[in-house]
Every structure is written in C-alpha cells, then in structure tokens.
Known about the structure:
By secondary structure, the protein is an alpha+beta fold. Helix 5 packs across helix 8 (136-152), helix 5 crosses helix 9 and helix 18 packs across helix 19.
Amino acid sequence: MGTGYKQWHEALSAEFFGAGHALQSTVLYIDDEAERELAESCGIDTGLAQAVADELNWTDPERPLLSRIQRRCEIWARGGTMGPPPSLPVLALSVLAATRMASSDGMLKTNFYGRWIQLFGEQRSTFRANKLEHAFQDVAVMWEELDNWLEETGGLYGASTVSTDEFYWKIGFPISQALVRGSDRHALTRFFAATRLRPHNLDDLSSRELLRRLRLWTAGRDRRLSPRLMEELAGAVGVEDTLIADLIKRLAHDWDGTLHEPERERRRRGVGLRLMVSDRGRRLEWLAEVCEGISETRVTVAGGRMFLLRKDYGEVYEGLESLRPSCQQLDHGLRLEGEHLVLEWGPQEVVLLRMHPHLGEWVSTEYFEPGEEHWILAADPTVGAVRSMVSALVGRTVREAPAPVPGWKLFKGVRALNGLAFARTLDAGGEHAHVLEPQVRQHAVLSGGLRIAPEFRIGGAVAGHFLRGGAPDLLLPASASPDGRVEIVLDGHRERLRADPRVPFPLCVIPLDEGEHRVGTDHSSQVFTLHDGLHEGLPPGSGTLGYACQGTTQPELSNAENLEAAIRGAEVPGGIRLPRSVLVRSQVLEAVLIDPEGGVRQVRQQTVPAWMASRLPQDACGPGLEVDVPDGYVWLVYRTPARWSVRTLAVASDIPAPTPEADDFAWAYAVLRAAGRCRTAAWLEYVAAAEAIAGRRKAR
C-alpha cells in the first residue's frame, strides 16, 4: 500500500468511522471541498484520485485492475475485519465522482462513468477508460463489503446508509452517499423531530409517507436541503422504490431521537411543537409532547425567557401556558432550546387540527384522516383558497370563525364523507391541498364504526367490538401493482379492490354475521367482532317501572314487567339532585370556590384511595383536582405551578351579579388573584366588585 493511499485510508477511517460515530448514521460524503479540507487537516500531499490511481494494475492484463486492493481486502477479511476495509479510498473516490455528476463538459448529469473516468485523467472511449468502467463491478462488491461490515459490527463504527436500487445497482452505492451532505444530516434530524417521528421509526412509517412529509417540511422557509437532495426529492414524486426513498427510510430507522449537532458535546433530543386550540376555539396554546426519559427540563426562547417543563396528563409537558402563540411566531416559527431538549415549530400558513384522544382539545396533526372531523387554522391570505377547497369535499357545512390570534381564521367541521368528492379534491391539487392528504399506509387499518367497546382482553389482538350494521371502515394500504388494485382478504375470501387508498372502504356495505371477522392483506390484517347488542340481565326485583316502546316511547310511566319492549327504570323524586363536579387536569397548589354573595370555600386536592394506589402503577394516577360543587358557587379560582386560572361553573346567563359585603376581603382577594385570566362580562363584574372592596381597605 503506497504512502498516499495509506494516509487517505487513515484519514477517512478517523473522519467517518471514528469512535464518535458509534450508533449514528454514517454517510461517506466526499466532494471537492471535503477532500481539500481533509487533506489539509491531515497533512496529505497526494490527491485522493492520484493515491487510488497509484494502486491500479495496468501492467498485468490477466489480473483485475483493482487486484492489489482486492488482495488487501481478502487479507483484512481473514484477519478478523478490524477497522474499516482497505477499499475505503476507492469508495470515497467513487462518491467524489457522484458529487460531480452535472450537465457540463459535454456530459449529462446522469453520466457517472464519465466523471469516474475523468477523475483518473483519462479520455472517454479509450482502452484505459473501458478498463475503469468495467472495474466498477469490483467497486460495487467493495460497497457491499462495507455495508456488511457496518451491520456485523452492530453500530460500533456507525450505522450504514449504503443503498442502491435495481436500475442503478452498481453506481447506486456511491450516489446514495453523495445525496446527503453534513448539513443535510442536521436538517433531516430536525425534520424527524418536527414531524414527531418516533426513534428508530417504531411506527414503521413507509418510505412513501416519509417522502410525503419531507416534501411538506422542505416547502417551509429555512428548511431546504442541499440542491442535489432537493432535486432527487422532486424527482421521486409518484415513483416507487427510488434511491432517495430507501435512503430516507434507512436514516429514519437509524435515528435515535437526537439532533445531529457535531459541535455539541451532549446530544439533545428534538421534538416538534404542536398548536392547540382550546376552550371551543377561543384560546390558542403551544403543546409539547413528552420525550421518553425527560420528565422535567428547562427550555429558553430567544430573548432569554425560561420555561420549566414537567410531565403532565396525556403525555404532554405543562409549563408553556404563559407562552401564548403570536402572529410573529406563527409567521416566522418558534424555537425553544435547553441543555437536553429542543422544541421547534416551523412556520405554516395553513394548519390542520384533529381532536386529541386524551386532552379533548383540537391539536395540530401531520395528516388528514378521512371520515373524521378536523379543524383548519388558516392565515388571512389563504382563506379564499381554503374555503374553496373544503367546499369541494361535498360534506356537511363547514363553519367559519375568527381565530384566537389576529390575522387568522378557523374552519370547523371539515370532514371527507364523500369518497369521490374527496379524491377529486386531492387530484385537483392546489397550493394548500397537502393539508387534506391522508397518511400513505403500508398496512391495512380499521377506523370509525359504531364501537360498542374496545378490546378488553390483554393481548387479545382484537381491534374492537362493533354493533352489527356499524362495521368499521377499512383504510387500504398503498398499491404497488400497475393497475392500482389492492388484494383484500375478508374471512378467507379474496377480492381485488380498485378503491382509492386515500379513501376508506366502508365494510358496513357488506352483510356480515354476528361474531368475529378478520380483514386485511396477506401482510397485515386485523380482527374485529360484530354484535347485535349488549344483553345484560336485570337484578331481581328491579326494572318493574318503565316507558313502553311501540315505535316511539310513551311519555307516561307504567308497569313494564310484562312488556316486551320498554325503557325500564324508576321514577326519581324531584328533590334528589346529582352533585355538580368539575375536573382540573393539572397539579393544583391551591383552589377556592366563590359565590355571588361574598362566600369563599377552600377546596383541596383529593388523595388517591389506598385500594386504588395498591392496584395501579405509580404513574397511572396523574395530577388532577376533582371538586364537588355545592349549590350557589359559580366560580373556581385555582393556582397551578405556572399561573392562576379561573373557571366558570355555570352558564354565563345564569350567573347572578355579585353582592358581597364591604368587608368581604377574602372574597375580593380570591377574585383578584385571577383577575386577568377571563374576559367574560360576568367575570369582569366580579373583578370590579373585588377591586372596590380592596380599594376601601387600602383607603383605611
């Protein structure tokens, strides 16, 4: 091995496969600039191409052109494969050739071999040029050898990103490394975090879905990748099994949830911020989902303002309540940084929201779910286009309302119930059609339906129990066949469906008997059950009173003991009333109930009963305050670790005007603690009364 070749092997080994690359995605990216910087930092006088050329066998026609390097690779393999393979400079040179692929010097941008030959200073169509081109078969084998070595060492030297496809089999290896620069790696980890990808792609998002999300993400300001990668991304639209699709999915599987920040000693986790529209559309808040292993941390916004984040109910952080979204943040983005965590929101003109399963509020989401209700938050310049787009869905009337932030509008009740209209709307496209795009699935999934109950057996693997006639919809996976059909298996019967995979197929149109059913594809299926209803016996001696049903229910209570169809129950005396209850899903430090007449009642957070604590995991009982409200009290004022808040306990029109005594100072101070937390007319009356009482005391 010549001196120059040996120096380059050592430099490339340290740069791309050193100790700092363990368990991280490794991309062997070498362009002209990277070659020059690496040579200067390592004191290498010989160029990479010259170092490789010195090792080529031009004299013995019976032996391969790369025979010397192949021989060293054989010795390396027999010796236990310690360190990177000796072929590293050859592989790096092939990547350098891939980075030079462009339409210039009389070559097309697809001409890899022309650039490969040019690196060695040879002329095309000569004997030596043909030898170099034919020798690339051996280079492809060396790439496979590097890929296998990285896999076998279990990530000790990094995780492989070496990829190729059937069309570009040999040259696809170096091209896969030339697509992703160092700046791209940083941007892609930000993308994975912003799109809320789980580490190592635990949800197994398909490569098509990852590319769909990446195209949307790169459409934003300051979120572009390198020109070469952007060009490949644009060319992958509607194409199956592209090189970039395979590479992005491999990077997603290798991603450990941290940001690529080589300049920092400690690797930080990244999470995409969400927008939450709460209080029936009257309030806008930032929402951050909990990072595994980080239950409490601090983050800072530009300007130095710090926020303490703590894990709260629903696997989200509390602590951002005082950071209200502004027009500036929505237009230009928001980034909060800490020692362990980075939260980021990229600017968007149109934001899709769906009901959060735990919080019961509308939260921004990555994709549209056909059949479910959504809200859309749109900036004023986009309102006309969004209005036309949602009107084309031919569903229920969409309601428009002012958004909680000036310059934006809310569209409520956006739902795709008509499959043909939904498909036409997507096919028509438009600047904001991406917000209606559903997830690109690779597995069949059930959704909707008239669910009686979820699966109640641990490990039962049943999607749920549904009322017969109200079977769930089947969300089809994307089709890979030329005719666009998907083969579906329902209880052993096969059918090739031409349905658009973006639109759910309604299983309720198929007559299905009561009992268990399995539906899906050969690769993925789900089990669900259908029932005619829940039949439960009544305890002896109960249910003798009820309302007879003969098409409609009779208004008079009667003896229902001998009736076949009746709504059974018992007459409840008018004097019996169920207590009013209010629930605050947060850690409450102190709280009081307030009535109109100057009364204040202290309430305390209830402890978890011993019988419950002994049967449930410690983290199953999240922080919360549950209060039974006696008659007469109309406001709850409470303090969390972040702020004071007030909640109304009655309809605004039913809240009496305040009539406290002049010396009800405790009542006044309780009201004033949360004076600015509510802007309703009823509350402002109470604040004015409290300020009058507090003013009298100061005057004394």
